[in-house]
């Protein structure tokens, strides 16, 4: 008799697991409909869902509450959301400065939104939250790639040095042809690349200063690869010959 009870329990456990797997698959399909997946689902259980972003350096844990009567998500009764916890797993001691900057901007965005639980009280709101985070992660990831590009190929654009401190990027340009050497410091924020970048200029040699840089930057529209386009435009308009 004991054996048959254990068998029955095992069957119930298996049925429960199968049900959970079906729910997970259905929820995953629903989430993927948003078609912008900078996230990877690493866990979906009765208690919580866990998502990783940006090469597993940012984790979002969504803690579930009770089911909600009359509300459905992926053809299953929807659940309330008690908490959304964000955590960084970037080793700032070992990571390159560009990765630290990217991480800072992502968390700047996360903190700017206030209470995520208020914006995402039930499962039905989760796809939009994942979409919003993905959008920022994607922009910041591209920024990281731009910084790596400038650090590797900057010399082609008379860019001697790319220095990153906190959320500022300092670009040191030098051109013997234009008889110019100056530092351009750009202040980045979570809005990159959709907002114009505040900047400072320090002239070391020659007469390229704030006025000349402002004239060039005013012709570079914000948008995709903004930082890269700024560097290319400065090189093209100010560093090719005498001024």
From TrEMBL:
GO biological process: attachment of spindle microtubules to kinetochore; protein localization to kinetochore
InterPro entries in the cross-refs: Blinkin, Knl1_RWD_C
Start and end residues of each Knl1 C-terminal RWD domain: 18-144
One GO CC term on file: nucleus
Protein name per UniProt: KNL1 protein
Species of origin: Dicaeum eximium
Organismal lineage: Eukaryota, Metazoa, Chordata, Craniata, Vertebrata
Gene behind the chain: Knl1_0
């Amino acid at each position: 008799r004991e054996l048959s009870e254990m068998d029955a329990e095992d069957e119930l456990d298996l049925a429960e697991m199968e049900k959970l797997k079906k729910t997970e698959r259905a929820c995953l399909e629903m989430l993927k409909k948003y078609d912008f997946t900078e996230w990877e689902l690493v866990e979906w259980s009765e208690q919580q869902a866990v998502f990783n972003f940006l090469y597993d350096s940012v984790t979002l844990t969504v803690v579930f509450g009770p089911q909600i009567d009359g509300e459905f998500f992926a053809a299953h009764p929807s659940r309330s959301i008690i908490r959304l916890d964000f955590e960084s797993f970037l080793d700032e001691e070992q990571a390159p400065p560009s990765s630290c900057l990217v991480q800072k901007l992502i968390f700047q965005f996360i903190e700017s939104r206030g209470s995520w639980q208020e914006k995402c009280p039930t499962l039905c709101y989760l796809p939009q939250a994942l979409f919003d985070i993905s959008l920022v992660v994607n922009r910041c990831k591209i920024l990281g790639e731009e910084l790596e590009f400038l650090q590797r190929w900057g010399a082609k654009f008379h860019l001697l040095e790319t220095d990153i401190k906190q959320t500022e990027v300092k670009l040191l340009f030098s051109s013997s042809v234009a008889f110019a050497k100056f530092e351009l410091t750009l202040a980045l924020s979570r809005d990159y690349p959709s907002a114009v970048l505040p900047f400072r200029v320090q002239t070391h040699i020659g007469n390229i200063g704030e006025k000349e840089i402002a004239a060039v930057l005013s012709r570079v529209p914000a948008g995709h690869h903004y930082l890269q386009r700024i560097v290319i435009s400065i090189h093209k308009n100010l560093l090719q010959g005498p001024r």
